[in-house]
Write a structure and sequence with these properties.
- The protein has 17 helices and 13 strands.
- With 636 residues, it is of the alpha+beta class.
- It has a 4-stranded antiparallel sheet with strand order 5-6-2-7, with helices on both faces.
- Helix 9 packs antiparallel against helix 12 (444-495) and helix 11 (421-438) packs antiparallel against helix 12 (444-495).
- The longest helix is centred in the middle third of the chain and has 122 residues, at 248-369.
- The chain is elongated, with a radius of gyration of 59 Å.
């Protein structure tokens, strides 16, 4: 809709009419006669020719409009400058900064090019200033002059902030020229232009140097441009070796490309990081689900185990109650048997007395009739022998009765003292042996009781075997559960090793020697200079002592009826350590000894243990799992 003023056939305007023409162009822009915004973040210049027209960001278009409007180049017409000034005014007042890189159109960032520069003019890159007419003197056949650092300090004091000042030398010595290097950014260009304008204001710029035909007094300076770069002089040669010539627009375009490439690369990095983050979240989620499933499964197993233990305990309690009741019944039966045996013993005594009287009567009759009949005498001899056998048999029965009586008393004492099932079976067997001896007389009632007690004995033995088999099964299950819990505990210890000990739950190295008391004691005894080396030597020595299995500074004492193993404070090494380095070091070694004696007395090396630092004790597996879940929730 708009056209370039360079192609306009209308006459140009004078400098006094620029402001009026600028206001007119500004009103046309406000009324929408020209299109500036082509998309959400791209803009175009309506006053540039179609060949040069391209898409700009807000900041780029503002720099373009300002640079052309304030350009001193004769290539631009006054109308063109007025149009671009109106465009800059329109952008600053009526358009928003859509590229999001500045605070707004009314605030110019410090990193942009100075507005008074022609963006199409060729400058030396990096920004470089030229200083000529530096005083020199001839000394020993060579020209010498002031140093670059001195001139640099003078320019810094004047606020131009050069990076370096380099005098130029040739075969005759100091050439009287120098180049001033500024920073490779827009503030550097600003300093360079201020440097040039300051010398121009003092009539010591480039034009003044040329006008004086290189014979002026004082320093002359300016910013290096294309003519300086292409000059056949020591200055041009130096500039061609150390840089290039570029327009401000080219530099801005290059910076925009670099920034775009940087944004693109950073976007790719962020996307890759986001993908990695999502993958890590997925892995953590899967691990959490798996851990929750394991915990639920462990809780179910633990609950089933507790229920089974309760059932077994109830069954065992009922079984023991039944055994106790059976024991009481057997005790009553033994009491009854005892009374029966006592009664039979008294009957045997009566029979023995009756046999003795009969034997005496028989002997008397034999003596009376011995002379009467020899045949009767022989019969009497045989009868006497028979009586002796009967007597011996009675004596044997009497001894057996006494032995049986003593055995019964012994069994009663054992029954009163022992309650266990195995001893009960032994007592039943003893009772059966007694009944067998008594059954030699052929008493059928006793034989039936023996058979009955045999049946009871076999039943008790079967119950004992069943109970042992059940206990063995439970022991196997408990060992398997304990193995699984130990494996889980080892994995938890391995995962928590990198976490700081300042947390509540962590991994503690049991038996590890605390080095801090050694350092403090060595500082007091040897001074700060030697404390570090001395402390390391002593720590290494006492770590060797702790690992020595032959050194066992412990003693056994009795506390409340129980034997306990405690550290022997009279041990020669410990006593010498306390006297030499103090109580703190002595307590640190004792603490390591107690831990290593409790957790690894045979190997005497350091082991890792899950530890509750808040309560100062060994942590449970449940506390470790709860801590891991809490950390995961916080990090998520």
């Amino acid at each position: 809709m708009g056209s370039s003023s360079n192609n306009s056939s209308e006459e140009d305007i004078s400098e006094s009419e620029i402001e009026e023409y600028e206001d007119k162009s500004y009103e046309e822009l406000k009324n929408g006669n020209y299109h500036v915004k082509t998309s959400d973040q791209s803009f175009s210049c309506p006053y540039c020719s179609k060949k040069r027209k391209r898409d700009y960001l807000y900041k780029e278009l503002l720099q373009h409009a300002t640079g052309v409007g304030k350009s001193s180049s004769e290539k631009r017409s006054m109308k063109d400058k007025a149009n671009h000034l109106a465009l800059a005014k329109y952008l600053e007042k009526d358009m928003m900064d859509v590229d999001g890189t500045s605070d707004g159109p009314s605030k110019k960032p410090k990193s942009e090019a100075p507005l008074g520069c022609d963006h199409d003019e060729m400058f030396m890159w990096p920004w470089t200033g030229v200083v000529v007419n530096i005083p020199t003197i001839l000394k020993d056949g060579q020209y010498v002059g002031g140093s670059g650092s001195k001139l640099r300090d003078e320019l810094i004091a004047r606020g131009f902030n050069p990076r370096r000042v380099q005098p130029l030398w040739n075969y005759r010595g100091h050439s009287g020229c120098a180049v001033v290097e500024f920073n490779r950014d827009w503030p550097g260009l600003h300093n360079a232009m201020s440097f040039e304008k300051d010398y121009e204001a003092d009539h010591h710029g480039k034009k003044d140097w040329i006008a004086s035909n290189a014979r002026g007094s004082g320093l002359y300076a300016w910013v290096a441009r294309a003519d300086d770069y292409n000059a056949e002089s020591i200055i041009g040669e130096h500039l061609r070796k150390n840089g290039d010539i570029k327009t401000i627009s080219e530099i801005m375009a290059e910076e925009a490309r670099k920034q775009s490439k940087l944004v693109f690369n950073l976007t790719n990095v962020i996307e890759a990081k986001n993908k990695h983050l999502e993958e890590m979240k997925r892995i953590v989620s899967e691990a959490s689900v798996s851990l929750n499933n394991l915990i639920e499964e462990k809780d179910k197993l633990h609950q089933a185990y507790n229920e089974e233990i309760k059932k077994i305990q109830t069954s065992a309690r009922d079984h023991f109650q039944k055994i106790f009741n059976d024991h009481e019944k057997l005790k009553l039966q033994l009491e009854s048997h005892k009374r029966e045996l006592d009664l039979r013993g008294r009957e045997l005594e009566k029979r023995d007395a009756h046999n003795e009287s009969e034997r005496k009567k028989l002997c008397e009759e034999i003596e009376e009739n011995v002379m009467k009949n020899s045949s009767l005498q022989l019969a009497a001899v045989e009868q006497r022998k028979a009586d002796e056998k009967v007597y011996k048999l009675a004596e044997d029965q009497k001894r057996q009765k006494e032995n049986l009586h003593r055995r019964i008393i012994q069994l009663e004492k054992q029954l009163d003292a022992k309650q266990a099932l195995e001893l009960e079976i032994e007592r039943l067997r003893g009772t059966l042996n007694v009944m067998k001896h008594m059954g030699d007389d052929g008493d059928m009632e006793i034989m039936k009781k023996i058979d009955s007690m045999h049946s009871v004995l076999r039943e008790k033995e079967g119950e004992l075997e069943d109970l042992e088999a059940l206990n063995q099964t439970l022991i196997v299950k408990e060992r398997k559960s304990n193995d699984e819990l130990q494996e889980a505990r080892k994995e938890l210890i391995s995962g928590l090793k990198e976490i700081s000990s300042r947390v509540n739950i962590g991994v503690k190295r049991m038996g590890e020697l605390d080095n801090n008391p050694f350092h403090e004691a060595c500082k007091r005894k040897y001074g700060v200079a030697e404390s570090e080396e001395r402390a390391l030597e002593l720590c290494s020595l006492w770590e060797e002592f702790l690992r020595d299995s032959e050194w066992h500074p412990f003693k056994v004492i009795e506390v409340e009826g129980k034997h306990q193993e405690v550290i022997d404070d009279n041990d020669e090494k410990l006593r010498s350590l306390r006297d030499e380095l103090g109580e703190d070091v002595h307590m640190a070694v004792k603490a390591a000894l107690i831990e290593i004696n409790e957790y690894n007395p045979s190997g005497r090396y350091i082991i890792s243990e899950l530890w509750n630092y808040k309560e100062g004790r060994k942590a449970t597996l449940q506390e470790g799992v709860a801590f891991i879940l809490k950390k995961w929730k916080i990090s998520r």
